[in-house]
Amino acid sequence: MFGQLYDRALTGERCWVRRDDGRVSRLPVHNWLGGRHADDRFDTTIVDMCEGPTLDLGCGPGRLVSYLVQRGVPALGVDLSATAVRLARSSGAPALHRDLFEPLPGTGRWQTVLLADGNVGLGGDPVRVLGRAAELLRSGGRCLVEFDSAAIGIDVGWVRLESASTIGPWFKWASVGIDSMPALAAEAGLAVAGIRHIGTRVVATLAAA
Questions:
Q1: Is the residue at 160 inside a domain?
Q2: In what residue span(s) does the Methyltransferase domain sit (predicted)?
Q3: Per the CB 3.0–4.6 Å rule, which of 19, 42, 46, 131 could disulfide with 23?
Q4: Domain span at residue 111?
Q5: Residue 16 counted as domain residue
Q6: What is the dihedral of CA 126, 112, 46, 152, to 10 degrees?
Q7: What are the angstrom distances between the C-alpha of 38 and each of 29, 57, 59, 181?
Q8: Dihedrals φ, ψ of 42, to 5°?
Q9: Strand-strand pairing, 190-198 and 201-208
Q10: Is residue 133 part of a domain?
Q11: What is the model's pLDDT at position 185?
């Protein structure tokens, strides 16, 4: 989805995100890579919330999967970027280079599914993403979903990555506010089990039947 420019951002090229309405924001790749630029409070808290075998959808370079594995928690990441998967594996995080909607191991048996860093907005279709998470969970499992604390409702639009030398292709994305969470969860067949604020960020726990 992100394409080659995203891969280059992961290896050091400075990039930003442009929306079709003209808004521009920094691509927070340093946060995703972990290390000294990571949001340690968020990462530690959401990892603490994970129970049992955990699947991270859109794992990027695998920082959360790596933390889970270090704690002895069985975990697997999934990402479309070959560069992200390579970086994840180099940090000791098991990861698959695959679309999250393709067949995945353990379907229907995961205890925890992670959707952090805005990944509930993948493809501009949060209902489809949450529905896929519900398919992957075991009965009684939980999906930990980060929502956009600055958004109201569901803001679907076209975005692209840019750098000083390259303009990437447009792709669909959604910013999903926590106010829309109850309706989205119900449509995906998940029950709201809790909401947790972590600094300026917010995570909902959605339970499978």
A1: no
A2: 55-141
A3: 19
A4: 39-155+175-208
A5: no
A6: 20
A7: 9, 19, 14, 26
A8: -65, -50
A9: antiparallel
A10: yes
A11: 97
Give CA–CA dist 25/148, Å, rounded.
14
Stated pTM of the model: 0.94
Give me the pLDDT at residue 16, please.
95
CA dist 86 and 54 (Å) reads 19
> Nearest CA to 147 among 105, 70, 205, 62?
205
Q: What's the whole-number mean pLDDT along residues 88-99?
A: 96
Angle, helix 40-49 to helix 63-70, in steps of 10 degrees? 60
For residue 1, pLDDT over 70 is answered with no
Q: What share of the chain is helix, strand, coil (3-state, %, to 5)?
A: 30, 35, 35
CATH number where 94 lies: 3.40.50.150
Tokens matching residue 91 = 């940090």
Count of structural domains within the chain: 1
